[in-house]
């Protein structure tokens, strides 16, 4: 075999190895491209969760007067365990006079089963979307009574630092503030005494 023939054969062999390697690589990339969507489809996507997939929240460690925040549909949701004092304050006739909609007459602000004095299924627990109904700010949790910045009549609740809207511990809006309506109560149901599913109506079995 001549030197020229040997060189050509060696070149062809190198090209053949390159083509085999390239084909294998492309095939592997294609397999990964097919497998990734399949694997992703087996888990709820972030888009599906943000579109409204229910979320479960365990509040077994929540003490009276404390609240936790969970996320549903990309929004913060508060779970507040109300104290007997909070409930007593909200029952008073004088307190109701300060509120724009004490009976939750705007039906779109809560499910029917939360259209009551405490806007909840269980009066001890408030579950509410933590977004001010004025311009979408997140109010502050202000359980302190009669603070200097809110006045001696403040019995605790939620204060929006953006424009001064005030809400009680049922998410009911005060009169003479920018927010037009109460905070929104999401659909929810209790799975047990210490766990709730937010985003699924209580009528669902």
Account of the protein in words:
The chain has 205 residues and is α+β, with helices and mostly antiparallel strands. The chain has 2 domains: 43 residues; 147 residues, Rieske [2Fe-2S] iron-sulphur domain (Rieske Iron-sulfur Protein, 3-layer Sandwich), CATH 2.102.10.10. The strands form 3 sheets. The protein has a 3-stranded antiparallel sheet, with no helix packed on it. A hairpin with a 2-residue loop joins strand 8 and strand 9. The longest helix has 39 residues. It starts with a helix and ends in a 7-residue tail after the last strand.
CATH class of the largest domain: Mainly Beta
Helix coverage percent of residues? 25-40%
CATH architecture of the largest domain: 3-layer Sandwich
Number of strands: 9
Poorly predicted tracts of residues: 1-11, 23-44
Q: Report the order of strands and helices.
A: HHEEEHHEEEEEE
C-alpha Rg, in Å?
Answer: 29 Å
Within CATH, the superfamily of the largest domain carries the name Rieske [2Fe-2S] iron-sulphur domain
Give me the number of helical elements: 4
* Largest pleated sheet: 3 strands, antiparallel
How many domains, as an integer?
2
CATH topology of the largest domain: Rieske Iron-sulfur Protein
Characterize the overall form.
globular
- Order of strands, main sheet, comes to 1-9-8
Task: Output mean pLDDT.
Answer: 82
Q: Class by helix and strand content?
A: alpha+beta
Roughly how many Å apart are the termini? Answer: 84 Å
Strand content: 15-25%
């Amino acid at each position: 075999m001549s030197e020229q023939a040997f060189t050509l054969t060696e070149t062809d062999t190198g090209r053949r190895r390159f083509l085999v390697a390239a084909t294998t690589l492309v095939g592997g990339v294609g397999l990964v491209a097919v497998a990734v969507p399949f694997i992703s489809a087996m888990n709820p996507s972030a888009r599906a969760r943000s579109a409204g997939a229910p979320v479960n929240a365990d509040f077994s460690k929540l003490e009276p007067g404390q609240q936790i925040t969970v996320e549903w549909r990309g929004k913060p949701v508060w779970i507040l365990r109300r104290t007997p004092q909070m409930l007593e304050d909200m029952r008073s006739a004088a307190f109701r006079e300060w509120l724009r909609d004490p009976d939750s007459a705007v039906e779109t602000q809560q499910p029917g089963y939360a259209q009551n004095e405490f806007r909840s299924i269980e009066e001890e627990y408030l579950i509410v979307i933590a977004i001010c109904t004025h311009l979408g700010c997140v109010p502050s949790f202000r359980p302190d009574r009669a603070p200097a910045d809110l006045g001696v009549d403040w019995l605790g609740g939620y204060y929006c630092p953006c424009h001064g809207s005030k809400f009680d511990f049922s998410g009911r809006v005060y009169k003479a503030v920018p927010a037009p309506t109460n905070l929104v109560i999401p659909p929810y149901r209790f799975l047990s005494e210490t766990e709730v599913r937010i985003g699924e109506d209580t009528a669902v079995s």
